[in-house]
Q: What sequence folds into this?
């Protein structure tokens, strides 16, 4: 039998969707110059809320995961949408990643 006919009799449950983000941040170093450092990791069920948290932390300086820049300039973040479909006793996982390039307005 084919895959479609095998799945017809199985009960499909509601999809589980969540988003994760990670990347790097560029900041002005206290002694002068600029440098890149890994950004904090994020996870949320809403992409909009996730991006708002990242923007807030970029503006406040908390996005740099402890590096301690004088201020943050911009961030390159990989945003991954995770979709988990449960059919019968099996989980099917799909991941789609996009890139968000965010700038801290006013920072140079």
A:
């Amino acid at each position: 039998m084919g895959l479609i006919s095998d799945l017809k009799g199985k009960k499909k449950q509601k999809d589980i969707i969540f988003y994760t983000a990670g990347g790097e941040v560029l900041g002005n170093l206290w002694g002068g110059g600029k440098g890149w450092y890994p950004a904090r990791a994020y996870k949320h069920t809403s992409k909009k809320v996730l991006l708002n948290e990242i923007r807030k932390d970029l503006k406040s300086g908390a996005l740099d995961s402890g590096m301690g820049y004088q201020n943050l300039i911009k961030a390159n973040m990989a945003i991954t949408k995770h979709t988990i479909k449960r059919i019968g006793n099996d989980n099917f996982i799909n991941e789609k990643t996009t890139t968000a390039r965010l700038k801290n307005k006013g920072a140079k």
User: Anything to note?
Assistant: The two ends are 62 Å apart (CA to CA). The chain has two helices and five strands.
